[in-house]
Structure prediction request, 848 residues.
Amino acid sequence: MSNNSNEIRENTSAEAENEELSLNDDRRVKTLSPGALVAKRFFRNRIALVGLVILVFMFVFSFIGGLISPYKENQLFYRYEYLNKEYAGVVKNEELRYAVADGQSFDTVIQAQLVMALQKGKDTFSFKKVDYSITTEGEDFYSVSLEDGTMIGIAYKDIVSSSIEGADIPFSLKYNALKAHSTGADSFEADGKQYTISDGGVVFEGDNEIAYISRYVVSSVMADVFITRAFKEELAESLDAGNDDFYFTDTDGVQHEYTVSYNPATKNWSVKQQTESRIYDTYASPSKAHWLGTDRNGMDMLTRLMYGGRVSLLIGFIVEVIATLIGVILGGIAGYFGKWVDNLVMRIVDIFYCIPSTPIIIILGAAMDAMRVDPKIRMIYLMLILGILGWPGIARMVRGQILSLREQEFMTATESSGLKVSSRIFKHLVPNVIPQLIVSFTMGVGGTIITEATLSFLGLGIKFPFASWGNIINDVNNTFVLTTYWFIWIPAGVLLLATVLAFNLVGDGLRDAFDPKMKR
Amino acid sequence: MTKFIIKRILLSIVILFFVTLIIYAVMRCLPTSYIENIARQKSMQPGSKSFEEWMTQLEAMYNMDKGIIPGFISWWGQMLQGEFGDSWYYTVPVIEKFNDTVWLSFVMGAVSMFFELAIAIPLGVLAATKQYSRTDYTITVVALAGISLPTFFFASLMKLVFAVKLGWFDLFGLVGRIHDQLSPWGQFLDKANHLVMPIIVLVVLSIGSLMRYTRTNMLEVLNSDYIRTARAKGLPEGKVIYHHAFRNTLIPLVTIIGGSLPGLFSGALITETLFSIPGIGFTSYHAMVGGDIPFSMFYLTFLSILTLAGNLISDILYAVVDPRVRIS
Prediction:
């Protein structure tokens, strides 16, 4: 620590102009403590100041930002998307259907004969010496009778379906309903009961709806959906009108939108319902709600960055504290005792220097992956491993400093005043190394942050529920993210770069401030 | 001098012994269930040995049946004979896989080291001669930025700009899609083209520390008395700097560069992995993540030997280059 008297004089020159003092007056000299001198020199270094400002920003961003942010670290966001889901299929019936009169036989052979006769335009046909006559009852609606006039069955294209689930429709009702439907009558009688029929083809017995007639067959695509008669009716009207869109208001009064498309190959319509589904809001672009968009899990990117910064900075600090503690203790002991102790400790340092730390951490990370270690415990392991592998450099530096310091007079003074060895090392020697320790600590935090980020980037460091700047950028391994979503990885990378750079700048500035002679 | 070298070599061997002991102990401390899991996975592969055979092979290789210390000593014996076993992940002898991949890493390392020296040393000298100037500050900040730049982020940026936006290079790999149809010269160019981005990444990331080191040493020399003498006797500034000062700066530079020569073989673990360049780094990364214990053990031992060799070379070079060290 050199007392730079030039600087002190500079400081006082302004005051000297104000007052006329004699040259040897004490008031002319403003004394500054060594600490204040260091601070003054540090604040004069503009580059280091920039680094300090960045660091302050990062700490505020990470530790206070997380409290201010309206979202939580693991809060998921959703968005609603309209999906067209297949809802129903509609076929327009183009084939004849048959119904057999009660107690008669109208088998498939006769049905085939009927079709042949219809194609030839005849109104009679005979089969196995029995003559049949065909009566055209309406459009695409025929009845077949024997010679004696007994009707054996009908053939029709408009489908009569029961409105009551599971109930059969007797033949006479079917026949009379179809007849009434084709002639446009509004009431008919069957089996002695009176029925009414509406224009749309709905058959009522009194006020009860019992059946309806339609050319369209609507079948549900999903097993759990029952398609109501009202839906079928409206859909049929819409199809007749040739509309592509179809709106239907259900019994709850909610309007649904459907799109209808016709497939000429299979001659059917498919009805798609627009349904709203809730999905994770992944990779959302930056917006007012999410300033930096959302990540692959649908979490707010800015909030993740804040919590990630917390993890990255904390890990950097804890690891460096562990490394510095071990380094100071071992380096101090080696430097003070010298001889074989020094030799032993320095060989241990050499050994640790040689251990390839990154590969070892990768192997341990992969093993922890395989054993599914809890992410929180993993984080602690990671800090311990990095700390234990990080101390040799510090031990070397402390030992080198102490080797030269212990030869100085103040150490002889401590020895002659009978101080304990531990207090001689840690109260008198180590404090003199603190400037160098602070510098190496600052730069070390930056280095540790990079190491941790690299490991997390490879997926072997901090694991998912926790955010870290490294594992946020991890997503860039996906080439699609690399090319499309800049906001996923560039902000985290910039923060990481700025933080590490700031630690290095501050460390550099501190070194110059602590020892101007070292400024090179 | 010979005595010094022999002493250093013997010491290095002792250190290597303990480093490998730690590595071996770490491997042995992995829970057995982990190793059994890998052996089980391996035995599931079509045409593979049975689970028991895998376990027996591993136990024989690493003497798992013995305690850590006896097991380690017999493993060392095997290692000295160059016996590293078969890689689990690549299913070929470890040494064979190593020979296939290490030269690519070496070429990459050598080319990037050449550029590193060619850029960092002149800039470091320039920064020192113009101390406190705008140039000096710019160079210092750029150097620090290079040190602070995370590899993966820089590599991703490079990929985005040069591979995706400009389309000059491929995103991954060492060879292009039509590599097999090219002439030998074309194949060479194809590989060179794929190595451009990884080499740029390596150079930019390593340039900073060498530049700062050059600057510091150059400044130290420039402040010494004989430089003042040279200036006092009226030598032109160019001669003072490049004839008197720079030559003395070379002393620490040569030691540090000599010490980093063995490192050329170690491969760039992260960069190679990011660009899928099949060098030793990429190969070992996949072996390590895939739980390939024979290959990982070999790679860790290899790296320790390289580090020790580097330290040894720089110590010896220091004694050779600087007569002051030899006298004391």
